[in-house]
Amino acid sequence: MDATKVPELLQERLKILVELVGAAAILVGLLFVGFELRQNTAAVQADTLQNLTELTTSSMYLLASDKELARINSKGFDDFASLDESEARQFFQLRRASWIRIQMAFLQWRQGTLNDEAWEFYGQFLCQYYAVGDWPIHKDILLENFVELVEACH
User: Fold this and answer.
1) Which of 15, 65, 70, 113 could disulfide-link to 48, CB 3.0 to 4.6 Å?
2) Residue-wise pLDDT tens digits, 30-67
């Protein structure tokens, strides 16, 4: 072999080695980014579910700790038309908060920050809540695609 060709051959092999190491480093970097993205998505979903759970339990605690409010809530669900003016105002506030909470769950599910299983839990209330009879006074403040989803219960 010609002595002048040896440095060229070593240089060519070194170039190939550097390119392989560079490609491997890029692949490892991409795998790490993918892993971190999955971890971040799981953390965001857990945080979203925690926040929704806290809102839901706060609402439940409120009804459990106030007999009169619990009575009005039950009466409103059983026979919305039978509520007097004062009861109707209180029931309205409870229901408005519930609709906003469920819409928030819907939006977070659509964005991917709430997983399918958690959305199934919140989504099951759509048709139950729609059947109460006060839906028309709430739907105007809610988003159109959420309203369409709720009205599909009918």
Assistant:
1) 113
2) 887 777 777 777 777 777 777 777 878 888 888 899 99
